[in-house]
Design goal:
The complex is a heterodimer of chains A (402) and B (380). Chain A has 402 residues and is of the alpha+beta class. Helix content of chain A is 43%, strand content 18%. Chain A has 15 helices and 12 strands. In chain A, a hairpin with a 3-residue loop joins strand 5 and strand 6. In chain A, helix 1 crosses helix 12 and helix 10 crosses helix 12. The radius of gyration of chain A is 21 Å and the shape is globular. With 380 residues, chain B is α+β, with helices and mostly antiparallel strands. Chain B is built from 14 helices and 11 strands. In chain B, the strands form 3 sheets. In chain B, strands 1-6-2-4-3 form a 5-stranded mixed beta sheet, with helices on both faces. Chain B has a 4-stranded antiparallel beta sheet with strand order 9-10-8-11. In chain B, strand 3 and strand 4 form a beta hairpin. The longest helix of chain B has 17 residues. The chains are: A alpha+beta (402), B alpha+beta (380). Chains A and B meet through helix 1, helix 3, helix 5 and helix 12 of A and helix 2 and helix 11 of B.
Chain lengths: 402, 380
């Protein structure tokens, strides 16, 4: 799953610095810190895991998100999609009663497998943090399955793959075009998934969910100190075992053009860590360009190995012209900053999205948080915007769909 | 036109949501689709660029969507711009008739776009855009955008005094057209859609009885069937049988009331009718074995949807997805509910009505609907 933004057709026009646009951007820049500052505590445990607790007094739910970095278990041709299969099996719980227990109390579990992490989040009523942690604790006992169950789950993944939309398929083409085997789609390849055995999944789980890879975020109307202590006790149980080497950044790519059978087109630029100014500049510029093109989208998921920002268009033909025309970096900088800030606001707008986004950032680097990204965004210079614009023109993987 | 419904919120925006009743014949669906596509872009008072700038501070585009019995038009402005928002609202409702050029641009955009994935399963028929003339769309705008045919809600941080003042200033003199606007007759009939992928879609639908307790009974039935991963659809169709990855049960409006829908997507060479028979047999058996524990679970999940903003409520006013808990959706449901039922939308009232539905009532409703369900297959 990617953080995909669509429908920004009517966001700021930046080609001409309109009085009202300038006023809005100025208001954004001069306002109090854009991200509300509810009290928040963070702890890094001796096993390398991270706990973050965020108090949101007006939240109607408490959300507990466990993020497991994919360090050491990156997708490879041999195990392509095993993490996705693991997610499907893991979230059932060893006794297949996770959902029954949660939903009887109005709780709900969601999970997603990304290239650089897996996330499981549990939404519960405000005072039910203990239930959420019990359920996660059961899940972290590891996957339990039979060969027959795996076969049925492979069939379900086949059904899931068929429903993938163009945006995801264009993005997958961009990733493999850019990074080859280093950019494999976490959805997986059915043939490879079909070869996984129950033992394979248990081994994979042990590597994936070792202490150092884990980040737990609890967001809601919670008592900070007590909840932090609870979170620490929860994560302290998971040993930090040695991992196979990896975590190296993805290699640089040369500009190229690739084809996809999805409808539309996409341009992908390489990015490093999310707190790299170039990353935020490329994101803001993509959002600005998308606002000028018909039926455009922007996809970006922060990752510990860097990755791509993808600017795409499902229907409509004007994206190449929009990119070519671009805008003046000096007059457009304000709007680029405003759009990137608005994107950041959306990632933390409620307890669920905040828990997911903070968990993802913490799994990259325990000290990384949205507040640091906000500083990077607000520090963007005209030169950063100019360089980002140039990247979309000359240093892209271009995906041509049908 | 009744004064707008106010939806107070602490968010620093003002959301304007309009529910337009769309009692249109099948041959008018093409004109309606074009109207919805053309409408948000510009009005006779505001250019496209001006509208983009007005709403840009709220971070969201103007949206216009068509459902089975209503058109939704919604936008947001930063809270300090509430008066400007009313100006834009007035322009959309009273002077928003698309020009022929706007209609043609909308036709080109819609023709290039087609739903895919799950959206293609739920879409239903594809409106015929080709035989619709620009004047058909304009006539439809004149017919639908009448004071008695709209319900407006305003949400966010805005003072009631300002709302009253702006409302009086902009809408008190709005009179309906004296002469009825004739329907669009020359449009083509909608055609069946396709998924466009390797899968087929199966949608089973049955209208609810027109009784007072139908909606809560139908909603509880939908929750028992499909809300959550311990629901019947998930446990039987996916976990036990492995027939589908995605399956949903929900209430959606019809022109005369509500219907219960079951939908699933499946990669298969099997005929839709055969799959339907297997699905119905499996579900009928499972529904017959529902217990009070199942009912309690469904109620707990419905409460989470209504009171804790879990975005899974199996009530799809626009026929395609649950509403979210953002200020726009919270404002829209209030406009829509008054348009549809004449009553105020209230989560607590709905929850109380749901708790009054017995297990036997839900079982009977569900089994009767399964028995009466019509089948729509969405082919590859």
């Amino acid at each position: 799953m990617h953080y995909t933004e669509r429908g920004h057709r009517t966001e700021a026009t930046f080609a001409i610095l309109d009085r009202r646009m300038f006023a809005f951007a100025l208001a954004v820049l001069l306002s109090p810190p854009l991200i509300e500052q509810p009290p928040r505590l963070r702890a890094v445990l001796s096993n390398g895991s991270v706990v973050i607790v965020e108090r949101k007094d007006d939240a109607k739910s408490t959300v507990v998100t466990l993020t497991a970095s994919a360090r050491g278990v990156e997708e490879s041709p041999k195990r392509h999609g095993w993490r996705h299969l693991l997610e499907h099996i893991l979230v059932k719980g060893p006794n297949r009663d996770v959902d029954t227990r949660l939903e009887a109390r109005g709780g709900f579990l969601r999970a997603r497998t990304m290239r650089d992490a897996m996330q499981i989040d549990v939404s519960v009523a405000p005072l039910e943090t203990a239930l959420a942690l019990q359920v996660l604790g059961d899940i972290l006992r590891g996957p339990k399955s039979t060969a027959e169950e795996l076969a049925r789950e492979v069939e379900i993944i086949r059904q899931e793959t068929a429903l993938e939309e163009s945006t995801a398929r264009l993005a997958a083409a961009a990733w493999t075009g850019a990074f080859g085997e280093d950019g494999l789609d976490p959805m997986g390849a059915l043939e490879a998934i079909g070869r996984a055995t129950p033992n394979d999944l248990r081994d994979l789980f042990a590597e994936h969910f070792r202490g150092r890879n884990l980040a737990l975020v609890i967001s809601g109307p919670v008592a900070l100190d007590d909840t932090l202590a609870t979170g620490r006790a929860f994560l302290a149980k998971y040993a930090d075992t040695p991992s196979r080497a990896n975590g190296a950044p993805r290699r640089q790519f040369a500009p190229k053009r690739v084809r996809s059978d999805a409808s539309g087109r996409a341009l992908a630029v390489a990015v490093d860590r999310p707190d790299d100014p170039a990353t935020m500049a490329r994101l803001g510029v993509a959002l600005a360009l998308a606002s000028e093109a018909e039926d455009a989208f922007v996809t970006y998921t922060p990752g510990y190995r860097g990755g791509l920002i993808i600017l795409g268009q499902r229907s409509g033909q004007d994206l190449p012209a929009v990119v070519k025309q671009g805008f003046s970096p000096s007059t457009g900088r304000t709007a680029v900053v405003a759009l990137a800030e608005a994107w950041l606001m959306r990632q933390v707008r409620d307890e669920a999205s905040s828990a997911r986004f903070r968990g993802l950032l913490a799994s990259i680097d325990p000290s990384l948080d949205p507040e640091r990204l906000l500083v990077r965004i607000r520090s963007l210079r005209t030169e950063d915007v100019a360089a980002a614009l140039e990247a979309y023109r000359s240093n892209v993987v271009e995906v041509e769909g049908r | 036109m009744l004064p707008p419904i106010l939806v107070p919120s602490s968010e620093p925006v003002v959301a304007f949501e309009v529910a337009v009743r769309t009692d249109v014949a099948p041959r008018e669906e093409g004109a309606l689709a074009l109207l919805a596509e053309a409408l948000p872009r510009e009005t006779s008072d505001f250019s496209a660029k001006q509208i983009r700038i007005i709403v840009s501070g709220s971070g969201e585009a103007v949206r216009s969507r068509v459902g089975p019995d209503a058109l939704r038009l919604g936008f947001r402005v930063p809270a300090p711009d509430a008066s400007l928002g009313f100006s834009l609202l007035s322009s959309y409702l009273r002077r928003g008739m698309p020009t022929p050029a706007q209609v043609e641009a909308a036709r080109a955009r819609l023709s290039a776009r087609s739903p895919e994935g799950w959206a293609a399963v739920l879409r239903g028929s594809v409106p015929d855009l080709n035989r619709v003339k620009a004047e058909d769309v304009q006539r439809l705008y004149r017919r639908l955008f009448q004071p008695s045919n709209l319900t407006v809600a305003v949400g966010g941080t805005v003072s009631p005094a300002l709302v009253q003042r702006e409302w009086q200033r902009r809408f008190d003199d709005w009179q309906p057209e004296l002469r009825p606007v004739p329907p669009v007759l020359g449009g083509g009939l909608p055609q069946p859609g396709r998924t466009g992928g390797d899968f087929i879609g199966l949608v089973l639908s049955a209208s609810l009885p027109t009784a007072d307790d139908s909606v809560p009974t139908g909603l509880l039935s939908a929750a028992l069937l499909g809300l959550g991963k311990s629901s019947t659809l998930f446990q039987v169709l996916r976990e036990r049988e492995g027939w589908s990855y995605r399956q949903e049960a929900f209430l959606a409006p019809t022109l005369s009331g509500w219907a219960l829908h079951l939908a699933l997507a499946r990669v298969t060479d099997e005929e839709g009718v055969q799959l339907k028979e297997r699905v119905l047999a499996a579900l009928t058996d499972a529904v017959g074995r529902w217990t009070e524990d199942d009912r309690s679970r469904a109620l707990a999940m419905l409460e989470a949807c209504l009171k804790r903003d879990l975005r899974l409520l199996p009530l799809y006013p626009l026929g395609s997805e649950p509403l979210g808990h953002g200020i726009g959706d919270r404002t829209f449901i209030r406009a829509y509910w008054r348009m549809k039922t004449g009553a105020a939308w209230n989560e607590d009232t709905m929850l109380e009505r749901l708790r009054g539905v017995t297990l036997e009532q839900a079982k009977k409703m569900t089994l009767d609907r399964l028995d009466a369900a019509s089948l729509r297959v969405v082919p590859r």
